[in-house]
User: Which sequence fits this backbone?
């Protein structure tokens, strides 16, 4: 169910009422009809097919077992039923507008019931009342198994009783009073069946309302879980990924094809003299600095491929898939320069009065097979040397040797 406050409110309102007071209207009724249409149509088609087959079989047996005059009189009204049933089956193969469905079913049932009654009326004698009773039995079975709107059910019941009364009034074997009494007797049974069918429909509607409510609650729970999952993997201050999310991402990327990523690079970034910034300007300004640096880093990487996470207090880890050493160093230098050019204040810095960044870079060579933890340690080692050699610079870790290359920067 789509998120619709009016629909949600109506579902809750209906479920708060007593079961017998449930009435589906408007959009909820349309959804209910769509929900049950397939099963209802299948049931109606199956019923029509069986009634048609039984009619054909009965006519064949009559031709074999009854006198020719009686059998011939039954034949003409009997042949009405099969084509009518087939027509209803064809009309109920695909969804139609409600009035077409209702009109086709009611008209079809009227002709079917009339056909069954006329078979006995034309034969006369013992067949007269027998087939009228059979006609009522046919109507009752349809009322029981057809999951259709109450108005359609009542119409079918009224048609069956009208046909019964009309022919019983013309029955030479009984009087007027007997005909009316028999009709009232069968009417009580038929309308009891209609009431039972109504209860079944209400219970089906209530079950549908529970389904709508449960789907909504499941959707709400899924959204809440998604929010919690996002919160668990997001740094609350900067809004970027946190260490947990980056660790899971690295494990997934390195384990997805059972080998390391070729040409992946890691950048370990650390804000220089961040503790001095907090001491001089306070933690609120320190938090603002972290947010600004996180935004600058994100602005200088490929948003559709690269991953950025706050890895520690003032440390950020950047993953660059499929890059060369020169490309990784270029990205790192662009980040460093952008942070310096931002002119964020840091009066406690020994380099300048602006916030600066030291970055260690490690690149996964295509011929190597190292884990993400090893690559991260290399980037961390390069960062340590960048801090030791003066800060505000980018240092590249050489993966195949102990040689390290520092990228000089203006300080």
Assistant:
């Amino acid at each position: 169910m789509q998120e619709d406050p009016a629909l949600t409110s109506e579902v809750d309102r209906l479920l708060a009422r007593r079961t017998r007071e449930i009435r589906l209207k408007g959009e909820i009724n349309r959804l209910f009809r769509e929900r049950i249409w397939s099963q209802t149509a299948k049931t109606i088609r199956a019923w029509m097919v069986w009634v048609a087959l039984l009619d054909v079989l009965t006519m064949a047996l009559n031709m074999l077992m009854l006198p020719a005059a009686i059998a011939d009189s039954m034949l003409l009204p009997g042949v009405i039923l099969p084509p009518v049933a087939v027509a209803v089956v064809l009309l109920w193969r695909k969804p139609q507008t409600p009035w077409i469905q209702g009109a086709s079913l009611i008209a079809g049932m009227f002709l079917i019931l009339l056909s069954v009654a006329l078979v006995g009326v034309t034969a006369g004698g013992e067949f007269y009342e027998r087939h009228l009773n059979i006609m009522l039995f046919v109507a009752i079975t349809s009322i029981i198994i057809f999951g259709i709107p109450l108005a359609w059910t009542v119409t079918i019941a009224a048609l069956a009783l009208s046909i019964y009364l009309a022919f019983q009034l013309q029955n030479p074997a009984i009087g007027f009073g007997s005909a009316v009494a028999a009709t009232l007797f069968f009417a009580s049974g038929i309308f009891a069946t209609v009431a039972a069918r109504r209860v079944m429909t209400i219970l089906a509607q209530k079950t549908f309302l529970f389904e709508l409510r449960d789907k909504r609650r499941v959707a709400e729970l899924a959204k809440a879980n998604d929010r919690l999952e996002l919160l668990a993997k997001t740094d609350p201050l900067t809004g970027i990924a946190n260490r947990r999310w980056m660790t899971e991402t690295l494990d997934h990327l390195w384990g997805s094809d059972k080998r390391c990523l070729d040409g992946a690079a890691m950048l370990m970034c650390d804000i220089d003299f961040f503790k001095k910034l907090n001491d001089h300007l306070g933690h609120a300004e320190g938090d603002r600095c972290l947010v600004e640096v996180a935004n600058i880093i994100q602005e200088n990487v490929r948003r559709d491929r690269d991953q950025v996470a706050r890895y520690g207090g003032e440390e950020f880890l950047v993953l660059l898939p499929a890059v060369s050493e020169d490309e990784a160093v270029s990205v790192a230098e662009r980040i460093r320069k952008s942070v310096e050019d931002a002119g964020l204040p840091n009066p406690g810095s020994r380099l300048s009065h602006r916030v600066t960044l030291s970055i260690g870079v490690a690149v996964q060579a295509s011929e190597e097979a190292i884990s993400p933890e090893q690559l991260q340690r290399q980037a961390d080692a390069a960062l340590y040397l960048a801090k030791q050699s003066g800060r505000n610079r980018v240092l590249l870790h050489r993966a195949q040797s102990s040689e390290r290359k520092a990228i000089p920067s203006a300080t």
In short: The chain has 13 helices and six strands. The radius of gyration is 41 Å.
